[in-house]
Amino acid sequence: ILDGGDWTLWSGATFSTATGPTDDVTGGGSYFYTESSGFSNTTFSMSSECLDISALAAPALRFHYHMYGSSMGTLDVSVNGTSVWTMSGDQGNTWHPTQVDLAAYATSDSIVVVFTGTRGTSFTGDMALDAIEVDEMLGIVVNVGFDGRRGVGVSGNLNGSPVGAVVFVEIVLDVAEDAVDVLVDSGYSEFSLGDCNCAVPV
Predict the structure, then answer these.
(1) Backbone φ, ψ for residue 104 (5° rounding)
(2) DSSP string, 148-173
(3) What is the pLDDT of residues 84-138, one digit of tens each?
(4) Dihedrals φ, ψ of 105, to 5°?
(5) CA 182 vs CA 79, 128, 170: distances in Å
(6) Alpha-carbon radius of gyration of the chain
(7) Pairing relation of β-strands 96-101 and 198-199?
(8) Which parts of 97-200 fold into alpha helices (H)?
């Protein structure tokens, strides 16, 4: 990670109340964050070194973000100058796991990932990043049909996922629905899917 001091490597809670994480993702470690006290609408960037991902069959960028606070700004992720992911506003007091498909860069021997944080209008806008990695894509894709029932069951092969691992599931709907509640049953225990990106064909 290359940073000119815009992002701070930190542990524990940030200085302000009602914003920022109180710890890193795993507990007891460090994370990067932007301090919003005394600043507003300021943009800061943090970039990777040049990465060779040509050996990866299905490359993906994974990270956890924390964007808690009533005056939260915007976090943008770009690869070689092209935006590949963005999020704005208060996302709650929790770490969110995210995976970004880098298939468009699968044969590249030189990519640079840049995280750009734009601070909000007040002190309750501390955003944070943790567990950043580029590796093989994780997860399954399930296609969900809608036949008029109140609930729709889906299933997928989760074999090989280690206990406690974050499993990314992409839900593809063939009709537009206002909301989707997903429950994944691994065959041994059930867990709810906290962050769901639902793609609806048009």
Answers:
(1) -65, -15
(2) S-S--------TTPPTT----EEEEE
(3) 999 999 999 999 999 999 999 999 999 999 999 998 889 999 999 999 999 999 8
(4) -115, 20
(5) 30, 27, 11
(6) 18
(7) unpaired
(8) none
